[in-house]
Design brief:
The complex is a heterodimer.
Chain A (H helix, E strand, L loop, with lengths): L1 H8 L13 E5 L4 E3 L7 E7 L2 E6 L5 E7 L4 E2 L1 H6 L6 E4 L3 E7 H10 L1 H33 L3 H21 L18 E2 L1 H9 L4 E4 L3 H6 E3 L3 E2 L5 H14 L8 E4 L7 H11 L5 E4 L5 H4 L2 E3 L12 H16 L2 H4 L2 H23 L2 H11 L4 H24 L3 H24 L18 H20 L4 E2 L4 E2 L6
Parallel strand pairs in A: 9-14, 10-12, 10-13, 13-14
Antiparallel strand pairs in A: 1-8, 2-7, 3-6, 3-8, 4-5, 4-7, 11-15, 16-17
Helix pairs in contact in A: 3-4, 5-15, 11-13, 11-17, 13-15, 13-17, 14-15, 15-16, 16-17
Chain B lengths: L1 H21 L10 E5 L10 E4 L4 E6 L2 E10 L2 E6 L4 E7 L4 E5 L13 E7 L4
The chains are: A alpha/beta, B alpha+beta.
């Protein structure tokens, strides 16, 4: 209004007589008075009503610049610079304007230095304000795209803290590192010595692995006592050993340890505690396959149980993956939002199915045989919490690029594990969604690839419904 | 914008409740009770299986008792041991007969040689 008064009065000593120039016109609501890009002809002063000043790009992205009311004026920039109109002006309601032609405008300026100075001041202010708006928007966009180590430290750190605290109070909690600080008191025997005893029938061989692994391949004549079912199956084992001829005096040689868990050592200790006097393990714990005669069966694909809702959800990223092949959709931020919600729901579902029983998930990790034994429990405790935390960040729109990166990394790890299990014909279930017997197959790899593609799309194009840095962005910003 | 700050956690909360409730499994009541293996295992010993309604249970063989927790999911009983092993038990005849897959995995039909069949017995009997 101060500007309007200044225009009406000009400099106090030299009042502007607006009534001497121009003509009054009435424009209807939604009428466009000035069109961006057209040659300038008139300068306008608003007498009554409300008008919207805006810019529009060729692909129809509209940026509202300001709203004008009684006393305000517009159209001076193009008249002063001689350039085409820099913005469009549209009436928001029926408005009354004073329309001043270019010649009249020039005449007023020539005869009213106060007004000319005022317009120059106004243009300068507009320029400075415009620069500030552009800067603010650039800073906002840069912050939105920024990604820092802190984001990863925050998410991973939060997951580790939550996992450790929860494990303390969880009835089904597990030690952070299995067997940490325990001394190995079980005697070891070389492969050659063991083979010699095997040929002379001087020892009983016990396979401590899960039945599925035993059924696929084992030392011919070896008994199977899965270490994980020891408590339930020991009496049956004890009975079977007692029925074996001459078993009383024979030592037990336990095998079946892997890079991820020394089932052989654990079983040997359990048997020693049950009173078996001569229990040994193989020194080269994974060399038995090359030395002993084996009994093999063709790999049987692990039976699957229904996955439920998460199973259906998992197919959606794959469907969306096909949409990504279409370039305009590929770049759509709406697709990013859909992907965030979808991936978030899938990973929350994954996480909740594993968090309560880390020992079960730890065994799934052991099945893959890729994680060193000291890291199995740490991984089994932390991964479900990381899935949950990252999924929450993704859904809530907090540091979504970092969250998408972490989910992408998880997917890459899952894909590598799955491919390795398929190529080595491991008789295992996926372990991806808790303990359900989800099969390991190429479909599962494809589903994970779909999710990986979604994370890349989110990383590159996500910018809506983002609750982080520079405020909440609901849709394209109106400047 | 304020509306979204209210709606977002609300939607998210509902999602969490739904997922958590979805993970609780089905009612245990139809299968709670005491069972005994139909055949003796480990000599003359039978396995006594006690499934309590609160999700806890015991497995007793040759005087040794092992505690576990159990849930019902997709009409199958899932027994979780402290060591992380799972036994998947398939009920039949309205829960009067239970077939426990002792392989530690699940196989359709319970694999012969790794299957222990239980029958429901009256409490204390």
């Amino acid at each position: 209004m101060a500007e309007a008064k200044a225009l009406k009065t000009g400099k106090e000593a030299e009042p502007l007589k607006l009534e001497a120039v121009g003509r009054e016109i009435t424009v209807a609501a939604k009428a466009r008075i000035v069109q961006q890009g057209e040659a300038p002809e008139y300068f306008y002063v608003v007498r009554k009503g409300r008008l919207q000043v805006f810019r529009e790009t060729a692909d129809a992205i509209r940026t509202n610049l300001t709203e004008l009311g009684p006393g305000a004026y517009f159209g001076e920039v193009a008249l002063v610079t001689g350039q085409p109109r820099t913005a469009s002006v549209e009436a928001l309601e029926e408005s009354v304007l004073v329309q001043i032609s270019k010649e009249e405008f020039d005449w007023v300026l020539d005869n009213n230095p106060g007004l000319a100075r005022h317009i120059i001041q106004q243009l300068s202010q507009w320029l400075v304000a415009g620069d500030r708006r552009v800067e603010a928007e650039v800073v906002h966009q840069v912050k939105l795209r920024q990604i820092s180590w802190f984001d990863y430290v925050l998410m991973v750190g939060l997951s580790i803290v939550l996992a450790l605290v929860f494990n303390l109070y969880n009835d089904s909690g597990i030690p952070l590192i299995r067997g940490w600080g325990e001394k190995n008191t079980v005697p070891e025997i070389s492969l050659n010595q063991a083979l010699d005893m095997y040929r002379k029938h001087e020892a009983i061989f016990v396979d401590a692995r899960k039945s599925a692994f035993y059924n696929q391949e084992h030392i011919k004549g070896a008994m199977n006592l899965p270490e994980v079912l020891f408590d339930l199956m020991y009496p049956m084992f004890q009975f079977t050993v007692a029925q074996t001829e001459g078993a009383k005096d024979k030592p037990l040689i336990v095998y079946g340890g892997s890079y991820s868990r020394r089932f052989d050592l654990e079983m040997a200790n359990l048997l020693k505690n049950k009173g078996f006097p001569h229990v040994m393990v193989l020194r080269d714990y994974n060399g038995w396959e090359k030395v002993f005669p084996l009994e093999k069966k063709e790999a049987i694909e692990a039976a699957s149980l229904p996955l439920g809702f998460a199973g259906y959800l998992e197919w959606l990223p794959l469907s969306i993956f096909l949409l990504i092949l279409i370039p305009p959709i590929r770049r759509s931020p709406y697709l990013s939002v859909a992907g965030r919600v979808l991936l978030g729901a899938i990973f929350i579902s994954f996480a909740l199915s594993k968090i309560m029983r880390p020992a079960v998930f730890a065994l799934n990790v052991v099945d893959y045989g890729m994680m060193p034994a000291w890291g199995v429990n740490l991984w089994a405790l932390t991964l479900p919490w990381a899935e949950l935390v990252v999924a929450l960040f993704l859904i809530l729109g907090i540091r979504t690029r970092a969250a998408a990166t972490l989910i992408g990394v998880m997917n890459i790890i899952f894909i590598v594990g799955l491919v390795d299990a398929i190529l080595h014909h491991l008789p295992i279930n996926c372990g991806c969604v808790g303990e359900v017997g989800e099969p390991v197959n190429w479909w599962k790899v494809l589903k994970n690839t779909g999710m990986l593609a979604m994370t890349i799309q989110i990383f590159l194009y996500d910018r809506f419904l983002v609750l982080d840095r520079g405020g909440f962005i609901l849709r394209d910003r109106k400047i | 914008m304020k509306k979204y700050f209210i709606k977002l956690p609300a939607v998210f909360g509902l999602l969490m409740v739904w997922l958590i409730l979805g993970g609780c499994g089905e009612s245990r009541t139809p299968f709670a009770g005491t069972y005994q293996s139909m055949e003796p295992v480990a000599g003359k010993n039978y396995i006594d299986l006690d499934l309590k309604d609160d999700g806890k249970g015991t497995w007793t063989l040759a005087g040794k008792t092992v505690e576990f927790t159990w849930v019902v999911n997709d009409n199958k009983i899932w027994i979780y041991t402290k060591s992380g092993a799972i036994l998947i038990v398939t009920p039949s005849q309205d829960g009067k007969i239970l077939s426990a897959d002792m392989s530690g995995d699940w196989h359709p039909g319970c694999p012969p040689g790794s299957c222990v069949v239980f029958k429901r017995v009256p409490k204390g009997g």
